[in-house]
From TrEMBL:
Pfam families tied to this protein: PRC
Ranges annotated as spanning the membrane: none
BP GO terms, sorted: photosynthesis, light reaction
Organism: Glycomyces albidus
Domain PRC-barrel: 21-92
A GO cellular component entry from the record: plasma membrane light-harvesting complex
Xref: InterPro entries: Bac_photo_RC_H_C, PRC-brl_dom, PRC_barrel-like_sf
Coiled-coil regions, chain positions: none
Protein name per Swiss-Prot or TrEMBL: PRC-barrel domain containing protein
Lineage: Bacteria, Bacillati, Actinomycetota, Actinomycetes, Glycomycetales
Length: 140
């Protein structure tokens, strides 16, 4: 797996499900490292072959749904999860300024797209040598 990028799919567009529904973070608010609300987890991008979430699809910005954009944030950014919120170690402005993600308009994202995305947030790609999948930040 070190040198290849498997297909990532939106969880809602696949036959896959979350093994433990209590750990499904879709619909949770995203809180940045300063405690500010950043958006909402609208979906998850899943590595089909390894059955692991790789990115949170976050709806960010806008007012009453107008002007809202979708961005992807690596699951590596998640520091904590509670019943209503997902906490990340990045600032709201960084997320809001991130590369926009629209699965309906963009072609199938490829390796350079994901390399740039990981680089934007300061993480090593999940296919790189020595990558360790982050442990799930269980609720307190």
């Amino acid at each position: 797996m070190a040198d290849e990028l498997t297909t990532l799919v939106r969880l809602g567009d696949s036959d896959l499900t979350v093994a433990n529904e209590a750990e499904d973070v879709r619909g949770h608010k995203v809180i940045d490292r300063s405690g500010e609300e950043t958006g909402t987890v609208d979906g998850l991008l899943i590595d089909e072959s390894e059955r692991k979430a790789r990115f949170l699809e976050i709806g960010s910005g806008g007012f009453l749904g107008m002007g809202k954009k979708q961005v992807l944030v690596p699951v590596d950014a998640v520091t904590r999860v509670d019943d209503d919120n997902v906490y990340i170690d990045k600032d709201r402005q960084l997320v809001a300024s991130g590369p926009e993600y629209d699965p309906e308009l963009m072609p199938e994202p490829d390796r350079p797209y994901f390399e740039n995305l990981y680089g934007y947030y300061g993480y090593a790609p999940h296919w790189g040598a020595g990558y360790v999948y982050p442990r799930y930040p269980y609720r307190p």
